[in-house]
Amino acid sequence: MTEVPIVHYLYLAAVLFVIGIFGVLARKNAISVLMGIELMLNAVNINYLAFAKYWGGGNLTGPVFAVFVITIAAAEAAVALAIVISIYRQLKSANVDDAHNLRG
Amino acid sequence: MILSILIGLPVLGAALAALFPQERAAKTISLLASATTFIFSLLLYTRFDAADAGFQFQQLFPLVPRFAINYSLGVDGLSLWLILLTTFLTPLVILGSFSMVDQNVRGYYACLLFLEASVIGTLAATDLFLFYLFWELMLIPAFFLIGVWGGPNRVKGTIKFVLFTMAGSLLMLVALIYVTHEVKSFDYSKIFDYSFPPDVQFWCFLAFALAFLIKVPLFPFHAWLPDAYTEAPAGGTVMLSAVLVKLGAYGLLRFCIPLFPYAARAFSHWIMLLAVAGVVHGALMATLQTDFKRLTAYSSLSHMGLITLGIFTFSLPGLQGGVVQMIGHGVYMAGIFLLIGMLYQRRGSHEMDTYGGAAKAAPLLAAAMLWMVLSAAGLPGFAGFVGEILILTSAYKAWALPALVAIAGFMLSAWYLFNFYGKVFFGQARLNHEDTKPFDKAQGGAQGKTNPQKEGAPPKMPDLSWAEGLALLPLVLAALWIGLTPNFFMDPIEKSLDLKVIEKLKPQPVMMDFAAQQRRLQDEMESNRQPRQKNNH
Amino acid sequence: MIQHSWLIPGMPALAYAVIVLFTRRFKALSAGISILAMAACFFLSMGVFQELAKLDPSARTVSFSWTWLQIPPWEAHVGVLIDPLCANMLLVVTLVSLLVQIYSWGYMHDDERFSVYFSYLSLFSASMLLLVVANNYLQIFIGWELVGLCSYLLIGFWYFKPEAADACKKAFVVNRIGDMGFLMGVITIGMMFQTFDFAEVQKIVTQGLSDHTYSTTFIAGIALLLFCGAVGKSAQFPLHVWLPDAMEGPTPVSALIHAATMVAAGVYMVARTYTLFSADPLSMTVVAWVGGFTALFAATIAVAQDDIKRILAYSTLSQLGYMILSLGAGGYTAGMFHLTTHACFKALLFLGSGSVIHGLHNQDIWKMGGLWRKMKVTTLTFAVATLAIAGIPPFAGFFSKDAILDSVHNSAVPGHCVLYYMGVFTAFLTAFYMFRLFFVVFTGEPRDHHAHDHAHESPLNMTGPLVVLALLSLCVGWLNWPGVGLYSQFVHYGSVPEGAASIGVLLGQSWPTLLLVVAGIALSAAFYYWKVFSAEKMAEKFRPVYLLLKNKYYFDEMYGWLVKKVLFGLASIFHWFDEKIVDDGMVDGTGWINQKMGGLLSLTQTGYIQNYAWVIFAAVAVIFFCVSF
Question: In this structure, are residues C131 and C140 in contact, taking their beta carbons and an 8 Å threshold?
Fold first, then answer.
């Protein structure tokens, strides 16, 4: 069976990464921003795993890194959601543009 | 050993003074501490060897061997009289301030003593790191002195003073780091043996000189002076004008000229011009003032310009004249500012219009003030004349035109000083209770107790008290002594001035192999390191 | 005796110290110490003079000094130079000081600061004598400044009077203006010739002029700088304004300082440094014209003054002008001779007026009159002095004034004829206003009967000096009796000047001046004694001229305006610079720049998270591209 070239995985990862960036930069809702961040992290995971399989030669460094990233993404999502809930309680809005008190 | 005592004793005194809660304890302790310091400093003079141009009373204690930073102290001709001036004036300032400060008294005397310690440290340091440390350390007590116990605009005055001085010092720090990096040592002896290439000298001179010329102050950098002097309490002003500004001149003599002679020569004409501009500017501004503390501040600026002029003539009479003028300036400015403080404590105002006829009410005070005013005006027989005549003659030799303009300052000083003296002491008492703005204690600083004023009666003007008289008497005698026997002050330091400043200015062999010098120093450093490395294994 | 001549300035200085430190509370003791010291000085001066006279004329210069300030190779000395000029001044200064001190004992008797007064007098004498015996330029400058100080203290002795306070400050400041030039000259000498010593400078200058190292103009320039000091100290035009105001001080002070000694210091200095002055006609011309102009100028003002001391002050200005004129015209001996005679009769005039003021407690001549009935001694001595100053033979003024006019007549100064006529006309005016003063105060009917009734003759310690000075005013002139010329032989510069061969010749030369003087007296008598003409009607007719003279040509107002405009204007420019450029520009400007930069940078802190995210991603992209390419 012909192998899928690594490039496909990399393209996939790149596209996911860009969609994630779009989500972070262009969405108004705080939760949407967080979703975009999750997308970026997962795109990076795909990259790690692709390189680990094709160029790793049995080395487990790639998958280990991916596990780390998943863990940290989970922790970060929890903390970020807690902050968003806190801000929502204060400002009654989940719009990132409304949280600009650190201006100046 | 003795130099560490001179630095440590005031610090100890400051700590003790701050410790005890009673005011009287603080006053007595600080007076004792400063008087003892003065007595110890007399030992400096008696054991000083005039024939030795190097550092005497040396003391060394390694601090950071890797960078060759040591706690090293030493005195030579350049710093001898300034240290003695500081230790001489501090007890007098403390004594004179007894009646002038009534809030946070312990802190006041602690600050004064701390200031004295850091000034002596700056003067006695023979390690560049230590010098810079004490230089910056001086600013802290000065900041508090002006900012807490000063006049109505004290915060503005003190911030201006500290920021200005610090700006210069930071530039000096940059140059200092470069210099010590080149020489690979912070020690004076190594630094003074090193020859800097001309282009390096240029920039380093500018950086160092900026710090010192701001301190002196030289004409365009004088903006901190009027506000700082006017707003500081009397004792603080004395320390500022009589002690701190001399450090600027000391820095010029110690670092700028011997280390960077090529640059010094190149800039000397500019600095002489600015110095003369300062003389004239200070004199003219003084003629406009109605506030006599500000007037004296500008007068101080004018005289310091003269000192700078003398230093940059690069001749022995000019340098000697500068040093004598420094000592004399310290003495008579201390006297005038102390007396101004006493006047303020009696009337609550610095405006000349609120005085008049004070000589009738307080003849001793008037006589003391006249003595000091005559010194400041450069009358022969008093402290100011010797310095002026030496500086003017050597300045004339160096460059005729500025010297002639500086003579105008000599004439104007008579104008504004006698104007001030006449308005305050002669004529009739001018104070009408309705005419003056009452001394607003809420608005003013923590200084000064005013005499309780009965409605409609001018405040009383008592004559000098015992403490005040005792504080002024040494100054009066010193002013006369400097004027009559100037050689007493000039002889011990002649050798040092000659070898440390003037010799350095002589044309050096032009083609110096700077690379070879660097290689030599590198080898020295490595050979110093190797024994330790051997010990580790 | 000459080796001990350093005691001459020393003893009054010691007296000052003793009085200030110890005997302030004991009036009589203070006066005694001061007078004793002065008497000792006088006798010492006599001894010095005697010893000097015994020496051979060519060897009449003795000098010795001590080093005061030493920075090798630079040295400053304090020393003594005794030569005929100095001996002459010593006698004048010590004698007049002694007489004035004895007089003051009576005049200041009721003053509460009696001891302080005498201490100041001693200090003044010490400083003046220091100046007189000086053997180098620096010392003469030191003495110069010190007498200025004493003048300040003594004019402002009654400091609670605002006029006195202003006057003493004015005196000191105006003197300082002259001292600026003086100091410039002294410094130039020190730098150019590497020495301050009179004798050495004289040698170097004569040498330098003969082998053309120095041009005569350069030497004349130095001389003119030194002359600035003389203009200030001797109150020549345009620095004359302080002398009339100085009359606010006690009258003996006016007699001593502002008539006989301190103001003569300028003349003395010019005589001392005559080598420099006579090098080039330029300096001589300037000196002569300044002197001549001052003489005439002051005399015209004196005609319209009403205060007895002011008239005498302007008279002093005028006579000093004569002395300076004489020196400028080459009449060295004549000028110094006039200094000597003037000291005698001017001191007498002032002390006499003091006697009048003491008796009447008033200084306005129009409140006086007919005093000869009440104060016989004062009147008589005053008359002697007035005759002397007018220049009537055989009184002293005649010989000295005539010598001056003679030297002007024969001088080489351009325009000396004009100067001569100015001098003669001034003599006429002098006679006129001095006799105006005499007639109004002493003759006729008293104008203020109340004061007149209380007037009384002064005590002996005041009239004694008056009599002594009157005798001197009569006899001192005979020192230069034509044909004998004792004075000329003693005090001269270069060769001994030729005077008239006999008294007859002298009268023959000077009869025009004498005639004018007598005419002046007669005119004055016509106005004020016989009252043929009316002075008031004259004043009304020529009112603008009268006002001009009375207000001293408005010079005080002009100087006040000048000071306000020029000095304060200049100072305002510096103030503007200080405030706008340094304070606002540099200091506040630095703060402003900091604030503005901070403001700019804070624009990047928008507070929007997504903006920050954009920046982060953009930066990462840029770095990525930079690193990989």
Answer: yes
